[in-house]
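Page 47, continued from p. 46.
Same chain as before, 81 aa.
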Amino acid sequence: MNDEVKSAAELKQIRLNRKLAQQVEGIKAMADIAAADAAIRKRTAALRELRLAKEAADRAKPPEAKAKVNKKAQPNKKKSA
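Result:
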């Protein structure tokens, strides 16, 4: 580090520069957060549309009911020897 004693004006300028740099970093960080939030909302909306379309298609075409096979009620088939 620089061991020179700085004047009050120099210290004030250093603090001002640091404060301005922090403000710029804060603005950039908020912009990054806003962009990430917008991207998340866009992906969520697209996924919601896909899910709703799939659900609508599923409602329009219900699955066919499978007939239950009762193995005990069926007669035993004899094997040919």
